[in-house]
Amino acid sequence: MKVLQINSVCGIGSTGRFATDLYSGLKANGQNCLIAYGRGKPRGIARQDTYRIGSSFEVAFHGAMARLDDRSGFHSTIATKRLIKVINKYKPDVIHLHNLHGYFLDVRILLNYLASVDVPVIWTFHDCWNFTGHCAYFDLASCSEWLKHCEGCRSLRDYPASFLRNCAVKNLKIKRQLIARLGRVCVVSPSIWLAGIARQTVFGRFEIEVIRNGIDLSVFKPTPNSLRERYGLDNRKVVLGVASRWDKRKGLEYLLDLATQIPHDYSVVIIGIDTKQIRKLPANILGIRRTKNTAELAAWYSCADVFVNPTLEDNYPTTNLEALACGTPVVTFSSGGSGEAVAEGCGIIVESRKVEDLLLAVKHIINSQTFIKSECLKASQAFDIHRAVQEYMRLYEKMMIFEPTGSEVRAVDAD
């Protein structure tokens, strides 16, 4: 079997690491896999098994244009036509889509192509962009216009940001037309939450499955380290936060507020913040820039007494899985699917969005014997990437014999 994965990144970030972990699992099972990606450099994969869609200049141009015309996902035309040639040459048995946003693809060209060929498509939803006119999430904006026409978009300044035009209505109309013409498609959601939302959209006519994302448990495990000694954290309770990018959606302000209220023998460690953010941190917060070293991440998870994920909008955060796999209980808000990985005895899901309740949960875990490492490690066995690989292989084989029942295909115009 030959599987082509398409994602914005390869080997970095949660979606990029999941794509390369899936690649490794497929290769270990004797399958062929190629990852076509849009940004950065590939990690954790043989270079001959990758294809970069476009160049850094093309990505930058797409991003700049999207900020002007609100047409993210509708540029990179030449790069996408080159990708089609690569697909035709590779002749995959299955095409597995991940994130198509990120300024590297023209979705009109790609989806028109997929509607014209008899190749099964697996589409893993890592956020909500596929069925909105602009945003990747809409909870913070308390918006339900994605169910209608995306009129009066409230998230234009949010990723993928637009500063001049609002084309959300037009974008959504085109996406719906493109998706309506697809035939052999199965949508996969890592969370029950997002699967339920997808069923309310144009994707509801396809089969929608929940397959939990997996992580490499040979990397994310209790890891002996000297981080406490190195950073002067001996005899302190360590509260850890991790994100690839800290912004309002990820709840950075909650961790900053938490640091003003924690006892004197607690320290907050935040991984993934930028240099500007580090300069503004108070003395009782240790800020560390983003790391691509998974072994170092595992060491930090193992070092912490509790992992706090104050995300306000999310699907199925990989950081929760990684922390639990290292034996560290999780505190998170009831946001999207963030709490779905937190089994009883492995953490606390905070229903409110109050820092006071977040603090109570952190103290309860640190002072309680209820939340023990063995329970976290037991629960983490469900996150094994090998389980996810087997589930995807089953789905690939199922879709390869599935006969589509779609109507006649007509290409959607570029405009």
Describe this structure in words.
- The chain is of the alpha/beta class and 415 residues long.
- The chain is built from 14 helices and 13 strands.
- The chain has two domains: 229 residues, Rossmann fold (3-Layer(aba) Sandwich); 156 residues, Glycogen Phosphorylase B (Rossmann fold, 3-Layer(aba) Sandwich).
- The strands form two sheets. The protein has a seven-stranded parallel beta sheet, sandwiched between helices. A six-stranded parallel beta sheet has the order 10-9-8-11-12-13, with helices on both faces.
- β8, α8 and β9 form a beta-alpha-beta unit.
- The longest helix is centred in the N-terminal third of the chain and has 16 residues.
Key terms:
2 domains; Rossmann fold; alpha/beta; six-stranded parallel sheet; 415 residues
